[in-house]
From TrEMBL:
Pfam families: Asp
Organism: Apatococcus fuscideae
The Peptidase A1 domain, residue ranges: 1-102
Name the UniProt record assigns to this protein: Peptidase A1 domain-containing protein
InterPro entries found in the cross-reference section: PEPTIDASE_A1, Peptidase_aspartic_dom_sf
């Protein structure tokens, strides 16, 4: 996924289909902004960096940005949504469906 190309020292691990990241410099990773209907929503480095245990004695980090869909499509999953309160309105009319997004009360950033 192209977004991982701007994360310093991100290395693609084809066996798992993820990008490995250095856990040592997460604070220096870029903040990404997602634009939805003209509003900007920031995704901080700690939001998209996942710490994983590689064994009982070592751990590493991977990027939460993964893509199975070619092009510019991103699925906004738990790394993004955990900091936002979302409300979904759907009454059977797909043209009137709405999603409301607001900063979660427990969000730290």
């Amino acid at each position: 996924m192209l977004i991982n190309a701007v994360i310093p020292r991100a290395v693609y691990w084809s066996d798992a289909g993820v990008y490995n990241l250095s856990c040592d410099n997460v604070a220096r990773f870029p903040t990404f902004s997602v634009v939805l209907d003209g509003s900007y929503f920031d995704v901080q480095p700690l939001d998209y960096t996942l710490k994983v245990n590689e064994s009982e004695t070592s751990s590493g980090c991977t990027s939460a940005f993964v893509g199975a869909i070619p092009g510019q499509t991103i699925i906004l999953g738990a790394p993004f949504l955990r900091h936002w309160f979302t409300s979904y309105s759907f009454d059977g009319d797909k043209d009137a469906a709405k999603i409301g997004i607001a900063k979660a009360a427990n969000a730290s950033s």
